[in-house]
Amino acid sequence: MKITTTAALLIVVLCLFFLSACKKNKPAEEIHIEQPPSNNIIGTWNHIEYFAGYSLGGDFKWHPVTSVEAGISVFNADSSFFTNSVPSSNFPASFSIKNGKLYIKFKTYTDDLLLEKLTQDTLITSRRVDEGKIKYKYLRVN
Predict the structure, then answer these.
(1) For residue 90, what is the DSSP state?
(2) This protein's superkingdom (predicted)?
(3) Domain count, the chain
(4) Residue 33 placed within a domain
C-alpha cells in the first residue's frame, strides 16, 4: 500500500509540475495604428532633413538635405501628387494613406513609405533599406 500511495503522490506532483510548465496562451495584444486623416497631408511640403540610421556609417543623426536632394512635394485634395525630386516622365501620380503607410503611385511604379509623424507642420516618412530604415522630414510650406 505504501508504494501505491507514494506512486500516486509522485504522479500528482509530476502532473502539477508539467501543467505549471506549460506555456500559457495570453490573449493577443491589440495593435492600434492611429490613422492620420489624409486631409492633414494636403498641401505643399519642403524636404528639409533625412535620418540615415545605419547608413552612412551609422551616425543616427538628422542631416540637412543638399540642394540636389531638396524637393517640394505637393499632395492635392483630389489625391493627385507632384514632386520635383523625380523625373517628369513618372507623372501623373496619385497618393493614398492606408494602415499607417503612404502610397505614392507613379506612372511606372508605386512607392510605399511608413508614416512616422504627421502634424499640421511636420511630415516624417521612412522607407526600409538593407541597413534598417531611412527617414525623411518635411515642413509644410502652405
Answers:
(1) G
(2) Bacteria
(3) 1
(4) no
